[in-house]
Amino acid sequence: MKKYYQPDTVRKAVPFEPIPAEVRIQYLRPGELLHIQSSFPVAYQPIGTIEWHGRQNPLGCDAIKAESLCVEAAKKTGGVVMPPVFFGTDAFRDLGHGMGCGMDAAAGFQLPGSLYKMPNGLLKDFFKAACGNYLERGFKLVIIVSGHNAIAQQHLFDELCYEMKSAEGAEPVCFTMEYAVLEPGDPRRHSDHAGFYETSMMMLLAEERVNPRANDGHQMPELAVNTQRPLAEACAAEGAKYFRLQVEGLAKFAQGRFEAISSNRN
């Protein structure tokens, strides 16, 4: 058999089905996938972590944010959402407790549930292979959206996107943090760690999994929490304000990048 994808052969063998409301690829049938790819061949790849996000929030906070954002953006633009990946990278630093990775450095000990750290080379190779698969089977653009907002994550995926560029400079793989799709200068264009922002997002996206009283009575109520506004002010209504702007921003980002890659091919 031939060792490359043959879209014309595929379309003869697999008839289109009507495009469904569902955008998560694991729930699509092949005919639905092909129909979606024919109009907007973009794969959204959410990534996050299994990581400490305060006593009050679920450990999967980062990927919950990223996947929810990708799903709503894909409903606006077309395209499909790949299953979230719960691994990432982080920086090692000393915040007065001795060297530690990520929020362990802030706590001074290894936090329960922080199970995400993968060697940078392995992480990059994994995503290079995953994105290569997507691009070989009918997608023209992959948008990686990270809910884990460590600067080390940004640097690694910037490198990945550069390495996957074509010789002519086309960028079939691009990366963004979830908050970075907002317009520069917007006061909500920021993140935190397990603070007002992320807790508000969890109150919106996973309300039943947030325990606002989990920190009551502790000598260190904000253990390994980094926040710009008081944690007590977090609420679903605030999360909804951020989320609405992010969905609009990611949809605009996706359409712009798809137009760029399409014009580059032409």
Written overview of the protein:
With 266 residues, this protein is of the alpha/beta class. The chain has a single domain (7-265), classed as 3-Layer(aba) Sandwich (Rossmann fold), CATH 3.40.50. Helices cover 41% and strands 9% of the residues. The protein has eight helices and six strands. The chain has a four-stranded parallel beta sheet, sandwiched between helices. A two-stranded antiparallel sheet has the order 3-4. Helix 3 (61-77) crosses helix 8. The protein is globular, with a radius of gyration of 20 Å. The model has no long low-confidence stretch (mean pLDDT 96).
Percent of residues in helices comes to 40-55%
- Which structural class do you get from the secondary structure elements? alpha/beta
| Assembly classification | single chain
Supply the CATH superfamily name.
Creatininase
Q: What would the CATH topology be? A: Rossmann fold
Note the gap between the termini: 30 Å
Helix and strand element order: HHEHEEEHHEHEHH
For the largest sheet, list the strands in their spatial order. 2-1-5-6
The CATH class label is Alpha Beta
Number of strands: 6
Overall geometry:
globular
Q: Overall pLDDT, averaged?
A: 96
Uncertain spans: none
Integer tally of domains? 1
State the CATH architecture. Answer: 3-Layer(aba) Sandwich
Number of helices: 8
